[in-house]
Amino acid sequence: MTNKQMVERFYEAFSRRDFETMNSCYAEDIVFSDPVFGFLRGDEVRAMWKMLCMNAKDFMLTFDEITEIDHEYLTCKWVASYTFSGTGRKIVNRAKGFMRINEGLIVEHSDGFRLSTWLAQAFGVTGKLFGWTNFMKRKVQNRARKNLGIFMDEEDKLVGNN
After folding, report:
1. Considering 45, 76, 115, 141, which has the largest number of Cβ atoms within 10 A of its Cβ?
2. Which pTM was predicted?
């Protein structure tokens, strides 16, 4: 499989909310970052995708412009539309994914998007007025990390890893 095909496989799986296939595209020690969750590694990344895919409502994703920067690095533009569970508001998130592929697996993945735009959509007037502030950004980031931790703890209990 070429690197471009790997990126296509990942985003096609994402469009179907197929976190198992998404996670199979990753190396064991995957490193991920985005404006909401910040820096994640390994099992945190896999749990994040599982949590997001399982909780997504009215989800639709399109992607295009997969660009190979060199033999390891690729970018891809993507747009996700969904209902944000925290407020019930509709989100249209326009993002750019950056991936590094080594030995046929994604070893680094970061998604870039304007967090203040996302906050304005997710929280309406409050997000528009305060979404640019570090206080609100940190509050949302802390909540996302807390929710991920709770999700991971619950998953551990389900499979008896506790």
Report:
1. 45
2. 0.91
For CA atoms 9, 12, 14, 18, the dihedral sign is negative
CB 56 within 8 A of CB 17: yes
Q: Whole domain around residue 68: which residue ranges?
A: 3-113
Q: pLDDT tens digits for 84-127?
A: 988 999 999 999 999 999 999 999 999 999 999 999 999 999 98
Residue 135 domain-assigned (yes or no): no
Q: For the chain, what is the domain count?
A: 1
Q: What angle do CA 35, 50, 63 make, to 5 degrees?
A: 60
Q: What is the CATH number of the domain that holds 105?
A: 3.10.450.50
Count of Cβ atoms closer than 10 Å to residue 147 Cβ: 16
3-state secondary structure of 18: coil
The position carrying tokens 């690095």 is: 73
